[in-house]
Amino acid sequence: MEKKFSLLLVVIIVVITNSCKDNGTGPEEKKSVRDYTWTADTLTRGGSIQTLMRSIWGSSANNIYICGHNDDAYGKIWHYDGNEWEYIDSTQNIRQQFGGASYQAVNGTDASNVWVVGYSGTTYQGKDYYIPFILEYNGTSWKKHQVNTKSAVYSVYAVSANDVWACGADGIVYHYDGSSWEIDTIEVSTSEGDQYNLYSITKSNSVTYTQAAVIENNSPRRRYYLFEKRDENWSKVDSFTIDSQNSQWKWGANHLYNTSFGKLYAVGFGIYERDGSNWITILPQEFASFRGFRDKGSSNMIACGDGGSAYHYDGNNWQEINALHGKDLLYTGVWMEENEAFVIANDLSGYPQTTIVFHGK
Q: In the 8-state DSSP scheme, what is residue 178?
C-alpha cells in the first residue's frame, strides 16, 4: 500500500511539473511597436497621377477607412477588410456632384457610424467657390448631409451617432445631434485678403476644442488660436503668432487629439499636452512636423510626419521606428489596436505619386 501511494505521488508531481512548462500554446508576450514586422501595400489607380491619402480611422483591424486626394474621380476613399484594400464609390448616386472633390478627414465610433468630410470647388471670374460635403456611412450605405454654407470642411470628430462635430474655412463649426445640423461661426479679427480656417476639432472631457489659423494677406505672418466650448458659447483660450520675430511654436497646429487617457494633445512642429491653461512639451519642434498621432494608453503612442519621421513612446522614452524611416515619405496618419498598427504615407519620390499603407504587428 505504501509503495502504491509513493508511485501515485510521483505521477502527480510529474504531471504538475510538465503542466508548468511552456508548451508553446500559452499566451504570447505582447510585442512592442518597435519590434513589429511591417508589410506595405501601395495604393493607386491605373491612370492616376496622384493618390495621396491624408486621414485614417477604423473600428477594428478588419474595418479601416482612409481618405484623401486622387486626381481621378474615384480612389478618394479606400477600405481595408482585413485582407485587401479596395477603393469605394462612397457617394454612389451623388458621385457626380463630387467628381472634383477633396476628401479631408474620416472619423467614427463603430462600423455603423463613419463620417467623411471635404469639399468640391470651382473658380469663376477669378474667385474660388466651394461646396462643402459631409458624408455618413451607416454600415450599409453612404448618405450626404446637407449643410447650408459655402465653405470647405477640413475636420470631423464623432463622439457618438448623436454628437458629431466638424469645422472648416471661415471659422465655421458644424454640430450634429442625430437629427439636424447646428452651424456656428467663431469670429476673429481679420483684414481683407486674410485666410481664416479652422483645421481641427475634437472633444475631450466634455469640452469641445477647435484650432484656427489666420494667414495675414498671403504673408509669412500667421496667427494661431485655440477655442473651447464648455457650455453654449465659444471662447478663445490661447493664441500665438509665427513671423519673422518668432519661430517658436506654442503648441502643434496641425491636429488636435483626444487621447484614450483623457488628455488633449496637439501635434505639428512638436507634440504638446494641454495641462490646465498651459502646454507641456512632449516632443520639441526640432524632432519633426507631425501630422498623425494615435495612442493605446499613456505608454503606447505613435506619432508620424514629415521627412519619413515615425516615433513610438513605450512609457519610458520616444524612439524612432527604424523600419518606417524614409526621407522621401510624408507620413499623414496612424491607426492602432493593442497588437497592430497602420501608418499611411505619401510617396512623392516618383511618378505616379502613391500612398503606402504600412501594417505592423
A: S
Instruction: Name the residue with higher pLDDT: 91 or 39.
Output: 39
For the CA atoms of 305, 311, 314, 315, what is the dihedral angle to 10 degrees? -70
CA distances from 62 to 54, 58, 342 (A): 20, 8, 11
Q: Which of 253, 252, 271, 136 is nearest to 197 (CA)?
A: 253
Q: Taking a C-beta distance cutoff of 8 angstroms, is the pair 359, 39 a contact?
A: yes
The SS3 of residue 151 is coil
Average pLDDT score over residue span 159-184: 97
User: What CA–CA distance (Å, rounded) separates 294 from 282?
Assistant: 14
Contact 266, 256 (CB under 8 A): yes
Confirm if 15 and 7 have CB atoms less than 8 A apart: no
User: Is it true that the peptide bond before 352 is cis, omega within 30 degrees of 0?
Assistant: yes
For residue 160, CA distances in Å to 108, 165, 177, 297 come to 8, 10, 9, 21
Half-sphere exposure of 194 (CA within 13 A, CB side): 18
137 forms beta bridges with 114, 142
Do 167 and 152 touch, CB atoms closer than 8 A? no
Backbone torsions φ then ψ of 7, nearest 5 degrees: -65, -40
pLDDT surpasses 60 at 97: no
Half-sphere exposure of 310 (CA within 13 A, CB side): 27
The pairing of strands 310-313 and 301-305 is antiparallel
Alpha carbons 132 and 120: distance in angstroms, whole number: 6
| CB 151 within 8 Å of CB 169 | yes
Q: Are 358 and 324 in contact (CB under 8 A)?
A: yes
Question: Could you tell me if 201 and 165 are in contact, meaning their C-beta atoms sit under 8 angstroms apart?
Answer: yes
Q: How confident is the model at residue 12 (pLDDT cuts 50, 70, 90)?
A: very low
Q: What is the pLDDT of residue 115?
A: 98
φ, ψ for residue 155, nearest 5 deg: -145, 150
**Averaged pLDDT for residues 277-301:** 95
